[in-house]
Amino acid sequence: MMCSKHKTAAAPFAALLLAVLMLVPAAPAQGKRPHKRPPVPVRGKRPRRKPPARRVKPRGPVAKHLVPLKLKLPKPAFKGTPTHVPPGTNLEKPRKGPRPPLLVPTGVTNVARGKKVTSSDSEPIIGELALVTDGDKSADEGSYVELGPGRQWVQVDLKRKYHIYAVVVWHTHAHAQVYHDVVVQVSDDPDFIKGVHTLFNNDHDNSSGLGLGHDKEYWETYEGKLIDAKGVAGRYVRLYSNGSTADEQNRYTEVEVYGLPAK
Ligand SMILES: [Ca+2]
User: Of 47, 56, 80, 246, whose CB is crowded by the most CB atoms within 10 A?
Assistant: First the structure.
């Protein structure tokens, strides 16, 4: 009797417990992420796609044929580049292997060769401004012009407007040194007040007052500094510097500007 009484009282309770257990969702196992249901596709509606990244507009005309820029380099005055970092500099990481080639449109030439050079220092300490575009890039004494201490600039007048694809600058490469606040700009305004395009700026603390630069400082070598100008159009190219790790003076051995005439 006892057994059948228990059986009849427990039966509804067990059924209720089973129903509750079926309704309560099981807790996710520890360490396992809850399974996410895939979204149910709605008929007639297409899933939203991520908009494509905006393309950066090239500054110059789009060239059909690009070739590596060929540079005639002077003889190296020393081997390799130093591995130490001079105090206060913001040096680029040492490069492994040869310098990667810069691709430029076919027919690009050095349009700075023999062109007139002006400067913030009209009376250089050593040499003359014409040395900046005379084609001599050697590390020898007598191949560079030396400007006074502090921030100085040299400016090349290309005589007409060009699409500029590269600027190469050799300060001095007789000894390893790092030039400070190297800023390279292009403009149609000889006073560089309006329409100024900055191609390179490694003044990381704005000590030259031309704006904060995000490019890195670098060791001067026989290779010169190759700057990608991306086809920007302009007649004047101005290069600033503010002394070097050697001293406060500013020396320029050569500046090359590779471009094509702009319409
Ligand atoms: Ca020269």
Answer: 246
In a domain, 74, yes or no: no
How far is ligand 1, taken at its centre, from the CA of residue 218, in Å? 20
Please state, for a pLDDT cut of 90, what percent of the chain lies above it.
69
Domain of 257, in residue numbers? 109-261
- Convert the pLDDT of each residue in 47-103 to its tens digit: 555 444 443 345 566 667 999 999 999 999 998 888 888 888 889 998 889 999 999
Residue 135 CA to ligand 1 center (angstroms) comes to 5
Q: What is the CATH number of the domain that holds 204?
A: 2.60.120.260
Q: How far is the CA of 123 from the centre of ligand 1 (A)?
A: 17
Cα 239 to Cα 156: distance, rounded to the nearest angstrom: 9
pLDDT in tens, 210-256: 999 999 999 999 999 999 999 999 999 999 999 999 999 999 999 99
163 within some domain:
yes
Residue from 183, 175, 180 nearest 221 by CA: 175
What DSSP letter does each residue of 15-26 carry, written as one string?
HHHHHHHHHSPP
Average pLDDT of the segment spanning 182-186: 98
CA of residue 130 to ligand 1 center, whole Å: 8
Question: Is the residue at 63 inside a domain?
Answer: no
User: How far is residue 154 from each of residues 128, 149, 171, measured CA to CA in Å?
Assistant: 11, 14, 11
**Which H or E element spans position 123?**
none
CA of residue 14 to ligand 1 center, whole Å: 99
User: pLDDT value at position 187?
Assistant: 98
